């Protein structure tokens, strides 16, 4: 018996445990499988059951590039292999300049990109699906998440927020874009007395997390979450350390990790949550720390993102690019066992903020507006009503003729 001859429920159960990268190659082999892989019920089931095979991606020279990092010290010294950039399919509303990506944010298989010329792009690299979204506003920041519903379908949304500088009166502006309606709307009744850090933020289980601080006290830092279901901000606790510079990352797509830079003591600490997803205050445990004296030529390094390998006690941090920077990725181990600086670009006159993150390929499709489907249903209804009216008119005309003939 061939696998395609299996009962539908058994086939679905088997395929829901196959990695997404493998299933993508199967889409063209069988119409039945292709239809199944596009079904939202199956997509959600696959997301829950399939093994996660994260890919390491980096924003480098305005492109999203895969890379592999070798951290097995028993074999070789730490190394990085940079691969060719992912192919971005250009839509009818894009041009070659629009492919220059300035910022990227990821949420469970989807990438939200801000391009050089202020356009928003939602992209699933695995499926090759893209969606260009207009209404970009300068000096704004964006986050991607989804509404957790009791049903299996996710309603994806984009949060746009704009805040005045810290020392000025807080004039905040918040908007939500809904994929289901392809429209923006303002969020009313939200006024924040704190400032959201625009770098080093993450998405986990559909919600977004930032480091934030009180407007009048830069050192009173805390973890801020936006719940895309309730569309409200939630204040949480950070590790019990002096508030200086902090960045967020994810560990195995399950926990939040914090990189804490202590420039006074020239050390860097890595912390991980141990009870994420509970209603209680977050518990934090320190994974390890790094002495920044190993970075002799750059005593006060500036990072925008990082990745933590908690098992190997290694942190990977790309530095910024530009003529005044070293343009390297730092690989640093616990207790200063080793430290490696790997160039990721030749000297460049045009700076950008490099970004490194784990991307988990997903079969999730970019949501299309439900209004389109409603219009199609309405068109069919209108067509049916028109046919009925014509038939009724024809019937009345026939009755009139018969009446005339009788007379």
TrEMBL record:
Question: Which Gene3D superfamilies does the UniProt record give?
Answer: 1.20.1280.50
Q: Which residues form the signal peptide?
A: none
What the entry lists under SUPFAM superfamilies is as follows: F-box domain
Under the heading PROSITE patterns, the entry gives: FBOX (PS50181)
Top-level taxon:
Eukaryota
Q: Which SMART domains match?
A: FBOX
- Domain spans labelled F-box: 1-45
Q: What is this protein called?
A: F-box/kelch-repeat protein At3g22730
What is the species of this protein?
Raphanus sativus
């Amino acid at each position: 018996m061939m696998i395609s001859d299996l009962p539908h429920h058994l086939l679905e159960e088997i395929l829901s445990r196959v990695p997404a990268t493998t299933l993508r190659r199967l889409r063209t082999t069988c119409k039945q499988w292709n239809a199944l892989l596009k079904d939202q019920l199956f997509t959600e089931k696959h997301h829950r059951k399939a093994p996660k095979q994260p890919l390491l991606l980096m924003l480098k020279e305005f492109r999203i590039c895969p890379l592999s990092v070798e951290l097995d010290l028993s074999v070789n010294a730490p190394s990085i292999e940079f691969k060719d950039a992912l192919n971005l399919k250009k839509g009818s509303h894009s041009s070659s300049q629009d492919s220059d990506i300035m910022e990227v944010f990821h949420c469970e298989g989807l990438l939200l990109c801000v391009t050089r010329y202020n356009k928003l792009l939602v992209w699933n690299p695995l499926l090759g699906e893209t969606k260009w979204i207009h209404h970009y506003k300068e000096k704004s920041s964006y986050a991607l998440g989804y509404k957790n519903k009791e049903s299996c379908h996710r309603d994806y949304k984009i949060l746009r927020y704009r805040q005045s500088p810290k020392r000025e009166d807080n004039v905040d502006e918040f908007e939500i874009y809904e994929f289901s309606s392809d429209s923006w709307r303002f969020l009313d009744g939200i006024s924040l007395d704190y400032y959201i850090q625009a770098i080093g933020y993450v998405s986990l289980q559909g919600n977004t997390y930032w480091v934030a601080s009180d407007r009048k006290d830069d050192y009173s830092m805390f973890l801020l979450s936006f719940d895309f279901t309730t569309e409200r901000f939630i204040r949480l606790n950070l590790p019990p350390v002096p508030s200086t510079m902090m960045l967020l990352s994810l560990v195995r797509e399950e926990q939040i990790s914090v990189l804490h830079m202590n420039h006074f003591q020239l050390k860097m600490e890595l912390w991980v949550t141990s009870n994420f997803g509970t209603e209680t205050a977050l518990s934090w445990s320190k994974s390890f720390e790094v002495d920044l004296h190993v970075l002799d030529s750059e005593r006060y390094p500036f990072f925008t993102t990082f990745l933590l390998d908690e098992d190997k006690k290694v942190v990977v941090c790309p530095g910024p690019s530009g003529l005044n920077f070293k343009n390297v990725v730092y690989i640093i181990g616990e207790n200063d066992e080793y430290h490696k600086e790997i160039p990721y670009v030749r000297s460049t006159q045009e700076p950008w903020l490099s970004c490194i993150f784990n991307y988990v390929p997903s079969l999730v499709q970019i949501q299309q507006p439900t209004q389109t489907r409603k219009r199609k249903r309405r068109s069919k209804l209108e067509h049916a009503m028109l046919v009925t009216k014509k038939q009724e008119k024809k019937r009345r005309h026939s009755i009139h003729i018969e009446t005339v003939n009788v007379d």
